Amino acid sequence: MERIEALLVIAGLLILSIVGYAVTSTSSKGEATCPAPPSFNNFNAGVLHLSPTAISTTVGKSVKVTGEVESGSYSVNGRECPYYGRVSILVYEGPQLGGAWNVIVNNLTAPNDVKVLVSPGEFYLPPKGSVDFNLTLTPLTRGSFHIYVVAVSDRGWRAWAELNVTAG
Question: What is the pLDDT of residues 114-149, one digit of tens each?
Fold first, then answer.
């Protein structure tokens, strides 16, 4: 059942990415917008940061991690375009992988070994601004776990950071 839920979440992310891409690359009012570069939703925007990036605790003991999403920018034909928009913070568990989103996403599942609460889970990131959020992680079993924290925007971009959790 949890695998089905994870697949539904991933499918939802893909739909959100497609809609976000359409919003980013076109404008309903004809206003000047920054075009989305090819594979825009496939690379890490690099605007999500966690502190700390590794935690060690015991089973059942909660630990807080602070996150921040900052507005950065990307360049298209010499024009600076900001990362901004409505952002959702999603959390996954998976193996430690590098690379593009299309490589990572097929290996992610809903967290099974760590209970995670995100606050706030959704927010608006203004251009040239930043928003802080908190994660509360509670390991449910002993071991080492690799957690992906992902910011997905309605503008088509995404950013992620990795968190290593060790529970003894």
Answer: 999 999 999 999 999 999 999 999 999 999 999 999
pLDDT tens readout for residues 1-50: 555 554 444 545 444 444 444 444 433 333 357 877 667 778 899 999 99
> Which class in CATH covers the domain with range 2-167?
mainly beta
Distance between CA atoms of 21 and 33, rounded to whole angstroms? 12
Q: Which helix (H) or strand (E) holds 70?
A: strand 63-70
Give the integer Cα–Cα distance in Å for 75 and 77: 6
> How many Å apart are CA 109 and CA 80, to the nearest integer?
35
Given a contact cutoff of 8 angstroms between Cβ atoms, the answer to whether 155 and 93 are in contact is no
Residue 122, C-beta contacts closer than 8 angstroms, at least 6 positions apart: 86, 87, 88, 89
> Does the pTM of the predicted model rise above 0.70?
yes
The residue among 70, 83, 101, 78 whose CA lies nearest residue 24 is: 83
DSSP 8-class letter at 55: E
Of 157, 134, 137, 156, residue with least CA distance to 147: 137
